[in-house]
Write a structure and sequence with these properties.
96 residues; mainly beta; 7% helix; 38% strand
């Protein structure tokens, strides 16, 4: 891709920087969610740029009640989701 058309700007102290382009997805994406230990699956449609926290709110779940796993690895609640991901929600139980 020829990037010669991108404007270049002079910053402070003569430093150059390139203008960056960001692509924003329009519409929604689907996330497949598997609940453990119930062993049920659900497909959730969310907007692009959705975080794990946003997904949990959509599903009316508390972030401290589940551990979110991707490929058997826990992911942070501020992680941005991508289309067609498969997540596992491991429900946490505690007691005395």
């Amino acid at each position: 891709m020829d990037r010669a058309w991108l404007p270049q700007h002079q910053g402070e102290a003569g430093k150059k920087f390139n203008q960056r382009l960001f692509y924003i997805g329009i519409g929604s994406m689907k996330i497949k969610v598997k609940f453990i230990p119930r062993n049920t699956c659900q497909e959730v449609e969310v907007p692009h740029g959705t975080t794990v926290t946003d997904l949990l709110r959509t599903m009316q779940l508390r972030p401290d009640a589940v551990i979110v796993l991707r490929n058997n690895t826990p992911i942070p609640i501020d992680d941005v989701l991508e289309s067609d991901q498969e997540l596992c929600l491991f429900q946490v139980a505690s007691g005395g």
